[in-house]
């Protein structure tokens, strides 16, 4: 079999790489090849996923659930981290396919979250909601190889979840006070999150950009926030001149970007 590489591609500091490709008999051409994921390590390539399979190369959901075979829906994002784990964003299902985040532990795929699923191991863990993101999503890996991701739920709210370490654990959630809020007071809440803004730090915490307000009667302000030790707190806020401001005379932050 020969390869016809496409994206995505990722690699780690130990020389391992993971990539999506099509493979098949070169005499038959690309149209008769199959989509898969290969892990390159110790000088060789090993197939770890294949479209249309529900065995060890499948998504690990049983019951005939497979990776979608279409170009845009098979596996569109991959991460490999120092250690043994590979993470993927893909579409999985039988006849209807929905976005899924998975971890490969070196032997098999383990699903971490799946849009539309009410299974506790794959659902948001917030009331009766299910995940409802439809395509790409912001994600990153922490220092202990856990995934953090900004995802949307069936309640039309976004949040941040820790994934691939047991059931999905919510860490921040729009229009919610308490531990899932921005840490700006007991009535404070997030109004929006920026998907591309997740930046992990060494203690399994992370920084992210969003909007928040101190209570329901106040306007939302854009800010940078940190999650650490199961709580969120503001780092910088638009319009603030104190400790959360730029520390320059007669100056406040006007916006943040990634």
What does this protein structure show overall?
With 258 residues, the chain is mainly beta. 0% of the residues lie in helices and 44% in strands. The chain is built from no helices and 18 strands. Strands 5, 6, 7, 8 and 9 form a five-stranded antiparallel beta sheet that branches. Strands 14, 15, 16, 17 and 18 form a five-stranded antiparallel beta sheet that branches.
Separation of the first and last Cα atoms: 41 Å
Specify Rg, calculated over alpha carbons: 20 Å
Task: Give a short account of the largest sheet.
Answer: 5 strands, antiparallel
Count of individual helical segments: 0
Q: Which strand-content bin applies to the residues?
A: 35-45%
Into which percent range does the helicity of residues fall?
A: under 10%
Class computed from helices, strands and strand pairing? mainly beta
The total strand number stands at 18
Q: What is the average per-residue confidence, as pLDDT, rounded to a whole number?
A: 90
Write down the overall geometry. Answer: elongated
Which H/E pattern describes the elements?
EEEEEEEEEEEEEEEEEE
Q: Which segments are poorly predicted (pLDDT under 50) over 5 or more consecutive residues?
A: 1-6
Keywords:
258 residues, disordered N terminus, five-stranded antiparallel sheet
SSE order and pairing:
Blueprint: E1 2-11, E2 17-24, E3 34-41, E4 44-50, E5 66-67, E6 75-80, E7 86-93, E8 97-104, E9 109-114, E10 138-141, E11 147-152, E12 158-163, E13 169-173, E14 189-193, E15 199-200, E16 206-213, E17 221-228, E18 231-237
Antiparallel strand pairs: 1-2, 2-3, 3-4, 5-7, 6-7, 7-8, 8-9, 10-11, 11-12, 12-13, 14-16, 15-16, 16-17, 17-18
